[in-house]
Specification:
The chain is an all-alpha fold. It is 73% helix and 0% strand. The longest helix has 37 residues. The protein is elongated, with a radius of gyration of 22 Å.
Length: 276
């Protein structure tokens, strides 16, 4: 029964996630039509055998745009989550190792400061200085991810510092940094993996939102958010322009959330025991 429960969330989530990840990888080598070529004669065509998802206002194939857009969204979200983990996890481990000290206080107050500014506002500030681009979207989303991973890591690590095996490591002469790397980090890795999938889905939503308001990927780079923004004035007579990129965002985020739930069920021993 336990494995069956896991399959209800893990397998559908993994299937949806790998579907769009596969589309992104395939788009590196092949797409049905070149997304940089305009074909005004075939603009706003309904779905057909030649164009399964139809064409947009510039005559570009929407299926090809979604495939390339998957590459953009996944790349932005993946790098942003990587930034959050690489910076946030060490900060969280350091804060937990120095609980109540000056370092802990400084790290937590810096986290509070970042949380006070939503990722969209951070993107606006970065764009005002450096201009709108996918790189700046990555920086904005990545900065917002840092306190998320720092808080999670600190909270999970604090519950481990009082364990007997940590006490034994301290008696053996290991310092806080070595204990954090050898004993704390491996035991919080499962939480970080699950949180990473959640932040990945939020990163895709954030990238789409930033591109929608013109702060993310810029033309001619394909982006699901940009596709939605371009379609909003034509949705009454060409709903397919918004339908397919909207479904791409929905299914990708849904797949990542289901994947995260399935991983949590498998990796969390408490949940395994509760459902045994």
């Amino acid at each position: 029964m336990s494995l069956l429960f896991h399959s209800r969330t893990l397998l559908p989530g993994a299937t949806l996630t790998f579907l769009f990840a596969g589309a992104a990888i395939v788009s590196l080598f092949w797409v049905p039509y070149d997304t940089t070529v305009l074909d005004i004669a075939n603009k706003i065509k309904s779905p057909s055998w030649a164009h399964p998802f139809g064409t947009d206002q510039f005559g570009r194939d929407i299926l090809s745009m979604i495939m390339v857009g998957a590459r953009t969204s996944i790349a932005v979200a993946l790098v942003a989550v990587g930034i959050g983990m690489l910076a946030g996890v060490p900060l969280g481990l350091a804060a937990a190792a120095r609980k109540g000290g000056l370092l802990d206080e400084v790290i937590m107050r810096m986290n509070d400061l970042v949380f006070a500014f939503p990722s969209l506002l951070i993107a606006v500030m970065i764009t005002a200085v450096f201009g709108a681009s996918a790189l700046n979207a990555i920086i904005a989303i990545g900065i917002f991810n840092i306190p998320v991973f720092a808080r999670l890591t600190r909270g999970a690590a604090l519950s481990l510092w009082s364990r007997d095996y940590i006490m034994a490591a301290r008696v053996a002469g290991k310092g806080p940094a070595r204990i954090s790397l050898e004993h704390i980090l491996p035991n919080v890795a499962n939480l970080l993996i699950v949180q990473g999938t959640i932040q990945f889905s939020l990163g895709i939503l954030a990238e789409a939102g930033l591109s929608y308001v013109g702060l993310g990927a810029q033309p001619p780079v394909a982006s699901w958010g940009r596709m939605l923004a371009d379609s909003q004035t034509m949705i009454s007579f060409a709903p397919h322009l918004a339908l397919f990129p909207g479904l791409a965002i929905l299914l990708t985020v849904l797949g990542l959330n289901l994947l995260g739930d399935g991983l949590r069920d498998i990796l969390d021993p408490k949940l395994r025991r509760a459902r045994a």
